[in-house]
Amino acid sequence: MPEDFRNLSSLRSLDLEKDTYYDKLDLSNNKLRYLDFLGGANLLTLRWLKLNGNELSVINETALQCLPALTYLDLNNNPLTCECSNVGFKQWVQSNNQTQVVNGHQYICAFPVSQNGNKFLDFDTSSCWIDAGFFCFVFSTCLILFTLLASFFYHFLRWQLAYAYYLFLALVYDKRRGRKGSSHHYDAFVSYNVYDEAWVYEEMLPVLEGEQGWKLCLHHRDFEPGKPIVENITDAIYGSRKTICVISRHYLQSEWCSREIQMASYRLFDEQDDVLILLFMEDIPACELSLYYRMRSLVKRRTYLSWPQAGQHTGVFWQNVRRALMTPGSPTDNPTMSFFQIQE
C-alpha cells in the first residue's frame, strides 16, 4: 500500500473504482462488516489482500470472485459465522486453488453459540442443501390432495363415516363404564330444552306418568344434586330403558341437549336396540337437523312422532308413544310407530 494511505484515522470515504492497478491492499483493523464494496472497486490486478482484525461474520464469496488476480488473503481474527449464510465462502476456501487463504484451516467459529470454538471448515453444511422450494411444493400438493379427498368423503360418505365413528366411541365408552346389563331405574329419560318445559309438565307428564303409569326421569326433578352434569346425563340415559328427545329449534341450538342426544346415540349404536324416541314439537326440514338426528335415520330408517301433525288426535299420538315405550327395543319389534317419515 502506498505511504500516502497510512495513518488516515479520519478517512470516511475511499473511491477505488478507477484505481485498477493496486497490487496490495491492507484493510486490517477497520471494523469492516461487509466486503460488497470489492465488487465495484475494479481491482483487477490486486494480488494481496489483508483483512484481519475486522468484524466480518458473513463473507460473500462473489465479492472475492471479482478479484481475478488474488493469490493471498488474510482473514484472521474475524468473528465468522458457522451457518448456512457462509456455506458459499466455505466452499470457495476449500475449492479455490489460486488464492492462498492464510491459516484458513485454523479459522474459528464465533457464531452461533453452539458452534463457538469449532473449526470453521469443519462445520456441517448438509442441512443447508435442503431444497425448501421442493418441500413447499410437496407439502402444498399433499394439502390440496387431502382437501380434495376430505371434500369427497364429506360429501358422499359422511354419514357412513360418522356412523363408524360413533359406533367406535360407543364401544370404548361401554367398556370403560361397564354398563352393559345394568338395571334400569326409569322407563324413559326425557331430554328437552327449558323452552319446552311447560309442554313436558303440562302435556307429557299427566299422560305418561299420570294415566299410563310410566316412570320418567327429568332434569330438574330427578338429577342428583352436586353430581357433575355429564355424569347425571350418563346415569339417566343408561339407567333408563329409553330416551325421549323432545325436539324443537331451541333444542337443536342447546349445547347440553346436544350432549344428551350424543350419549343416547352412543347407546343406540352400541346396543343395537331402539332406545331412542324422537318427538318433534314443530316441523323442521331435514336440512336443519344436526348430525345426530340424521344419524338415526341412517342406522334404523325408522319413523318419528310429530306433535303438530297429531292435531286434534292427541290420543293417537300418546298411544304411539306408549307403544314405543312398551317395545323391548329390537329394530323389528316396532314396525308401525308413528305419523310421518322425515324426508331426506
Automatic annotation (TrEMBL):
Residue stretches making up the TIR domain: 184-325
GO CC terms in record: plasma membrane
Keyword Plastid set for record: no
Transmembrane segments: 128-150, 156-173
A molecular function GO annotation: signaling receptor activity
Location(s) in or outside the cell: Membrane
Pfam family, one: TIR
InterPro entries (alphabetical): Leu-rich_rpt, LRR_dom_sf, TIR_dom, Toll_tir_struct_dom_sf
Alphabetized UniProt keyword annotations: Glycoprotein, Immunity, Inflammatory response, Innate immunity, Leucine-rich repeat, Membrane, Receptor, Repeat, Signal, Transmembrane, Transmembrane helix
Domain of life: Eukaryota
GO biological process: inflammatory response; innate immune response; toll-like receptor signaling pathway
Main location group: membrane
Topology versus the membrane: Single-pass type I membrane protein
Stored PANTHER family: LOW QUALITY PROTEIN: TOLL-LIKE RECEPTOR 13-RELATED (PTHR24365:SF522), TOLL-LIKE RECEPTOR (PTHR24365)
Family per record: Belongs to the Toll-like receptor family.
Protein name (Swiss-Prot/TrEMBL): TIR domain-containing protein
